[in-house]
Amino acid sequence: MTTSWVTLLGLVAAAAQGAPPTVGDTIWVVRTIAVPGGRTVRTTDWAPADPVEVLGPPRVTLHGDSAEVAYPVVVWRAGWHVVDLPGPLLLGENGRVDSLPPQPVTLRLESVLPAVPPDSSIPPQPRADFVARPVVSFLPTLVLWGFALLLLAPLHWWWRRRGHAPAAPPAAPMVTGPPLDRWADAGESRAVAAAATARLRGSIAVRVPAAGAGLDTEELLAQVASTRPDWPLGELGDLLRSLDEARFGHLAFPDAIGLARWVDELVPRLELAAP
Q1: Which of 109, 136, 170 marks a domain boundary?
Q2: For residue 126, which phi and psi values (nearest 5 degrees)?
Q3: In whole angstroms, how large is the CA radius of gyration of the chain?
Q4: Which pTM does this prediction carry?
């Protein structure tokens, strides 16, 4: 924003720079008063109404027996504006205070927007004529369909002669064992031990037919020792005896699921050792 100096003479505000200030410029509104001897000038607060706004405190400049009181203001609307400039206070040595009456001031503000000439508005246009519709023909669509049939008919015939690919054989169902983990979580340790024992004894019976299901643990170990001395007989005996304890013991076996995992680890080794 630019700064303009305005001196008040009666009710007329004239710009010191020659051109009237514009909206948003900082304007110094100056009032000159006579100051009697022994008096001091004290400014008063000023709160003008919209669109005039005071930007800062006023300042006092002494010139002999007179003083200039200047207020920095800004005006936010173009046109002529009349404001009442407050009168300052004159303070005497004996504590006497004289207040001067307010002074009406007329301010003229120019707009920052350029002037629009009267002929810049768009004149109304005459009514437009009806737009003629083009002639609709189905010939391009028929040609396109004929071309598509000529192209796709041989392709369809060739595709049908290729036949169908042989269907893939159904996948073999996955054989899953009993849910030992769930049984162990439910506290059924004897059921877990029974399932693990059945798997281990079944795997042994396949490779040692004499070690059938009717033998007890010691008889089964004797048959295995005479038939398959290459097997880990000590580990196999420990595992079978631990399974018997988990199945028939008076107290619940604490780690039946561990025995089941031991069986899962030992059975593949027995299968690999088979002739």
Answers
A1: 109
A2: -70, 160
A3: 57
A4: 0.38
